[in-house]
TrEMBL record:
This is Sodium/potassium-transporting ATPase subunit beta. It is found in: Apical cell membrane; Membrane. The keyword Repeat does not apply. It is a single-pass type II membrane protein. The keyword Transmembrane applies. Keywords: Cell adhesion, Cell membrane, Disulfide bond, Glycoprotein, Hydrogen ion transport, Ion transport, Membrane, Potassium, Potassium transport, Signal-anchor, Transmembrane, Transmembrane helix, Transport. Belongs to the X(+)/potassium ATPases subunit beta family. GO terms for molecular function: ATPase activator activity. One of its GO terms (biological process) is sodium ion export across plasma membrane.
């Protein structure tokens, strides 16, 4: 018949633990002799040195093969997106609504546009960007000839937006029924919007709803052109002073002063029929003025 295991006291347990830490009979420290502890320590030091070296080598090789100026894979960016300012984006739609009789309402819209156009200040652009860009031709640069090993960028000034620049009319037309919106195409590195050098991309806005409520559409620069000299874009590291070309669009609202509008950047390499990306090549928004 098995005997019950003897219950050990707290003092005996502490004594056993102390013997495990250092056993003078066997000369072991926590179950191993000092010589074995030296061997196992050297093994783990060598193991982690080798693992750290392999990891560092892998990171070095990866970074060496990466281009710092452009991502290796851009297969998801076949066509750039398009955005509109004032950027009053809701959950599903862009609703640019304002009250011409409420200064706070239309000042909100003009303030958004003034803040957005700060980088396009004429003096700032002409100081930091190349002046002698050739209009109507791609600005292809194979070398880093600009200061600090960068590439030049063509200036796009606020005044190029004409009546939608905020210089002639600081309210951008939001104190009446002739509001301006700013259309911007997103950047894609090394993207050429067209195969031809004599046909630049341009913005075209169409009325989807409320055709009788828009009497006239005006574009700034003329014909809504995004000049080819702003392409290709070489990346923020290569072109730190680059700014996107813009197009200002002014609408003359009449009647009910409400319309659903779609603005598209037209070029043979810019698609706009992607059902899963409503902002690819185009942007749709509601424009409404109340009094």
């Amino acid at each position: 018949m098995a005997t019950l295991k003897e219950k050990r006291t707290c003092g005996q347990r502490c004594e056993d633990f102390g013997r495990f830490i250092w056993n003078s009979d066997n000369g072991t420290l926590m179950g191993r002799t000092p010589e074995k502890w030296v061997y196992i320590s050297l093994y783990y030091v060598a193991f982690y040195v080798v693992m750290t070296s392999l990891f560092s080598l892998a990171i070095y090789v990866l970074m060496y093969t990466l281009c710092p100026y452009a991502p290796d894979y851009q297969d998801r960016l076949k066509s750039p997106g398009v955005m509109v300012w004032p950027d009053t984006y809701g959950e599903e739609v862009i609703d640019i609504s304002y009250n011409t009789s409420d200064k706070k309402s239309w000042m909100k819209m003009s303030t958004i546009l003034h803040d957005f156009l700060k980088p396009y200040n004429d003096t700032k652009q002409l100081e930091c960007n190349k002046h002698n860009c050739t209009k109507g031709k791609y600005f292809i640069q194979k070398t880093f000839s600009a200061p600090d090993h960068t590439k030049w960028a063509c200036p796009f000034t606020q005044s190029m937006l004409g009546a939608c620049s905020g210089l002639e009319d600081p309210t951008f037309g939001y104190n009446c029924s002739m509001p301006c919106v700013i259309i911007k195409m997103n950047r894609v590195i090394d993207f050429f919007p067209t195969n031809q050098t004599d046909l630049p991309p341009y913005v075209n806005c169409t009325i989807l709803e409320g055709h009788n409520n828009v009497a006239k559409i005006e574009y700034f620069p003329e014909r809504g052109i995004m000049d080819l000299s702003y392409f290709p874009y070489y990346g923020n590291l290569a072109q730190p002073t680059y700014v996107n070309p813009l197009v200002g669009v002014r609408f003359s609202l009449v009647g009910e002063k409400h319309a659903k509008i779609q603005c598209r950047v037209v070029a043979d390499k810019i698609s706009y029929e992607n059902y899963y990306d409503p902002y690819e090549g185009k942007v749709t928004f509601y424009l409404k003025a109340v009094k």
